[in-house]
């Protein structure tokens, strides 16, 4: 398992550094900004850059406070105060607290297309599930406040009556559909255990997000900065979903 983790970790980090694992919304926004910069005057470009820096500062601050206190215990006044902005300045960028919360969540969400590029279809499905878990853990470690927040809202999504941002619901539906397709293909080639692909996708999603939530709270890491029980967890993922012996990984 250590070989699998190191390989995926290095590949994911390199690809993330090249922007491959960037959220789709951010990538699209950056692409639009690059096109716009070719026609803007230097003065207008500087103004747009100041606006974007202010927006990112608000998102960074809100991410930390939402993660620490939760949605209901966080107010725009508190976010504005920590940013040293007025509440009115927050409304210049975001329509409401709901809008801010949604954009905080979606800003760092890993695009499905990026995941497919990081671990392509020709990787055996059981190893692919392990690799996907590694990517999510690494992403949460790189952005601990967001990792806590996203894992917590994923847990809330399994509670009846929870009201969640529409964009987040849509994103998670896409993730579950993608996972179900991976599992279905793995069942067809004999690498994954039998069972409802949708149910197994939900189980996988719940197990990984719960591990991220617990480890971001515990903050106990090894010399490489990973949660100390990551190896055991990844072995558990393989054993739970694979139809093959564990020793076949990387073989």
TrEMBL record:
Q: Which SUPFAM superfamilies match?
A: Homeodomain-like (SSF46689), Tetracyclin repressor-like, C-terminal domain (SSF48498)
Q: Name one GO molecular function term.
A: transcription cis-regulatory region binding
> Which InterPro entries does the entry mention?
Homeodomain-like_sf (IPR009057), HTH-type_TetR-like_transc_reg (IPR050109), HTH_TetR (IPR001647), Tet_transcr_reg_TetR-rel_C_sf (IPR036271)
Question: Does the record carry Transcription regulation as a key word?
Answer: yes
Q: Which residues bind DNA?
A: 75-94
List the Pfam families.
Answer: TetR_N
Keyword set, alphabetical order: DNA-binding, Transcription, Transcription regulation
What is this protein identified as?
Answer: TetR/AcrR family transcriptional regulator
Its source organism is: Nocardia bovistercoris
